[in-house]
């Protein structure tokens, strides 16, 4: 489990691609200070397992499904990545609960400077947007952020200079892809109220107006 608070920006050293998997080598300092083989590190929000490390970085295996379903497929040597070690008992939960399992890949659609912040609009699929609410939490490339607004096919977040300067979002432009993970609380609420296990198919069905009992009328009838 992670918290969405990026500890450092790593740099992709090398990527070795196989037929159905890949190895990614990342230069890093902070996250390898107390690392052990088998430890989990979030790389742009994706939970990866350390298979090799030294004082200058670490190596992780990436399975085919992870490559296919995340924006890690876009990485090249020299690219910067957000890094966070798994949270330990007693650590502060500075962001929100992040599993490191990506729900969807979004695309940055626009950026607008508002005073000191940059309001960023991200296009996302309906199966993810059903769990996104204004003032709720979402992980973008592993960064815990607060949602500003939600639209039919996108949502916005506001980046303060601190976040932009210490994460990859300060480097990204319209058209760039990002990993998205919805707040797990919404998924558990849906499971509790409807008895359905959230999935991409159920998300698309709900977006089309069918396949889910979690409606406004259902919530009103049950006291919400």
Please describe what this structure looks like.
It is a single chain. It is globular and about 55 Å long. The model has no long low-confidence stretch (mean pLDDT 90). It has 224 residues and is of the alpha+beta class. The protein folds into two domains: 8-85, Beta Barrel (Elongation Factor Tu (Ef-tu), domain 3); 104-184, Elongation Factor Tu (Ef-tu), domain 3, CATH 2.40.30. It is 18% helix and 38% strand. The strands form two sheets. It has a six-stranded antiparallel beta barrel with strand order 1-2-5-4-3-6. The protein is built from six helices and twelve strands.
Provide the number of structural domains.
2
Q: Which secondary-structure class do the elements indicate?
A: alpha+beta
Helix-strand topology string? EEEEEHEEEHEEEHEHHH
Q: How large a portion of the residues is in β-strands, by DSSP E?
A: 35-45%
Oligomer: single chain
End-to-end distance, in Å? 29 Å
Q: In angstroms, what is the radius of gyration?
A: 18 Å
Overall geometry: globular
- Helix content estimate: 10-25%
Please summarize the sheet with the most strands. Answer: 6 strands, antiparallel, barrel
> Major sheet: order of its strands?
1-2-5-4-3-6
State the CATH topology of the largest domain: Elongation Factor Tu (Ef-tu), domain 3
CATH architecture of the largest domain: Beta Barrel
**Regions with pLDDT < 50 over 5+ consecutive residues?**
none
Assigned CATH class of the largest domain: Mainly Beta
* Total beta strands: 12
- In DSSP terms (H or I, runs of 4 or more residues), the helix count works out at 6
Task: Look at the structure and give the mean pLDDT.
Answer: 90
């Amino acid at each position: 489990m992670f918290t969405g608070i990026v500890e450092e920006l790593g740099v992709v050293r090398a990527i070795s691609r196989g037929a159905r998997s890949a190895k990614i080598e990342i230069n890093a300092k902070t996250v390898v200070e107390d690392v052990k083989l088998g430890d989990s590190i979030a790389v742009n929000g994706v939970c990866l397992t350390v298979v090799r490390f030294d004082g200058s970085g670490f190596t992780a295996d990436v399975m085919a499904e992870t490559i296919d379903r995340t924006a890690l497929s876009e990485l090249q040597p020299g690219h910067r990545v957000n890094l966070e070690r798994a949270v330990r008992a007693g650590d502060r939960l500075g962001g929100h609960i992040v599993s490191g399992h990506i729900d969807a890949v979004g695309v940055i659609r626009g950026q607008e400077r508002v005073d000191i912040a940059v309001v960023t609009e991200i296009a996302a699929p309906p199966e993810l947007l059903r769990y996104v609410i204004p003032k709720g939490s979402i992980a973008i490339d592993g960064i815990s952020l607060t949602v500003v607004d939600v639209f039919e096919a996108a949502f916005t977040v506001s980046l303060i200079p601190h976040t932009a300067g210490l994460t990859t979002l300060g480097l990204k432009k319209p058209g760039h892809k990002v990993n998205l993970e919805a707040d797990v609380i919404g998924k558990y609420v849906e499971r509790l109220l409807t008895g359905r296990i959230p999935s991409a198919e159920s998300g698309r069905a709900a977006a089309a107006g069918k396949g889910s009992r979690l409606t406004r009328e259902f919530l009103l009838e049950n006291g919400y």
